[in-house]
Specification:
This protein is α+β, with helices and mostly antiparallel strands and 355 residues long. It is 47% helix and 12% strand. It has a 4-stranded antiparallel beta sheet. It has a two-stranded antiparallel ribbon with strand order 5-6. It has a two-stranded antiparallel ribbon with strand order 7-8. A hairpin with a 5-residue loop joins strand 1 and strand 2.
């Protein structure tokens, strides 16, 4: 017996129609709360189209509580031949009057909604899950796998298919002339496309995966890579200044959007980062201080070890020069190498006189 086409209801047409005047829609929906619990409701919405009715419902629910999410929204147009879902009778004048009074939007701006009790074992208001059946469905490993049970022929890995072809049931020996003809076509496509596999596949009017399979049947992967190697393009070199500017810009955009840098790092990573930062700063500081040593030596030797005159020649104050000498004393002993006639250290002056 030949099956006919599935009958379509008038509601499918109504949901696509934009009416010139307001219609009454009965809408079933599910509310999902912040604790992942769900409740099913039914309400009446007054709107000129089905899409507008859904948007009005969503907007009103979000006005009550922004954490609520709507699921499984399904509406039906109440028309003259609409029958009650529970009784199977057409709507009476009293029913139409109740619909008109309770439909949203209304004068009181109140959404009348009736909760529908969900049957036990249902994951939503129209779906029941058989837990025992779910355990039987799914991927199974080994010999119980569907693909293993229903395999037509013997499976071979890609590197085992050299010199073979698939006849629909099993792998058989490939005709040598046909194989060489296919091999030469692939070689020609690779040469004309500078060994680019994707462009070669396009020129042969096949997919890249198919090309790799044909290449594996003709020769080994190592043979193709040695004779027709893939060209690896080197990305253009970016200057240090440009890379740094890009990194700063991206980080500024992420911070502006509310992302805190290093917010996901653990205590150990954070301590390591800080220690590395301190070490880097200390290295920069030491390099700067070491660069001052030859300048100070030159200034002292030219001014007969007089600190004030040396500071004047360097264009700094005497206190600044003393601070430089104090911070570089671990590398140079200034009091011994460049002694001053006005040194107040008694032990140093006593040693100088005895010498």
């Amino acid at each position: 017996m030949k099956r006919g086409r599935k009958a379509t209801t008038c509601q499918k047409k109504f949901r696509k129609t934009l009416f010139p005047y307001h219609q009454y829609w009965i809408v079933y929906f599910t509310e999902k709360y912040s604790d992942n619990s769900e409740k099913d409701f039914v309400t009446f919405i007054k709107a000129k189209s089905y899409d507008l009715a859904k948007s009005i419902l969503k907007r009103r629910v979000l006005e009550q509580d922004k954490s609520i999410k709507l699921k499984s929204v399904l509406g039906y147009l109440l028309h003259s031949n609409y029958k009650n879902t529970y009784t199977g009778d057409k709507l009476s004048l009293k029913d139409w009057d109740n619909v008109k009074k309770s439909a949203f939007p209304n004068i009181n701006n109140f959404l009348f909604k009736k909760e529908i009790t969900r049957p036990e074992g249902y994951t939503c208001r129209f779906n029941k899950v058989d837990r025992d059946q779910v355990k039987k469905v799914g991927f199974k490993k080994g010999a119980e796998n569907w693909s293993t049970k229903n395999r037509k022929g013997k499976f071979k890995k890609l590197h085992e298919r050299k010199g073979l072809r698939w006849n629909g049931y099993d792998w058989v020996k490939w005709d040598k002339e046909e194989m060489n003809h296919t091999k030469h076509k692939i070689i020609h496509a690779l040469i004309t496309n500078n060994n680019n596999r994707k462009l070669a596949a396009e020129s042969l009017n096949i997919g890249r995966g198919t090309l790799y399979k044909l290449m594996a049947r003709c020769e080994t992967k190592d043979w193709w890579n040695s004779n027709y190697p893939i060209e690896k393009r080197i990305p253009p070199r970016v200057s240090k200044e440009q890379r740094s500017a890009t990194q700063k810009r991206v980080m500024a955009e992420r911070m502006a959007s509310g992302i805190k840098p290093f917010s996901c790092s653990s205590k150990e990573i954070e301590e390591k980062r800080l220690s590395n930062l301190r070490a880097s700063k200390a290295k920069e500081r030491d390099e700067y201080r070491k660069s001052l040593i030859p300048k100070i030596k030159k200034a002292l030797s030219e001014n007969n070890n007089i600190r004030t005159a040396a500071a004047r020649s360097l264009g700094v104050k005497r206190g600044t020069l003393k601070a430089w000498m104090l911070r570089t004393k671990e590398w140079v002993n200034w009091s011994e190498e460049y002694p001053s006639n006005y040194n107040t250290n008694k032990d140093f002056r006593w040693n100088k006189v005895n010498k």
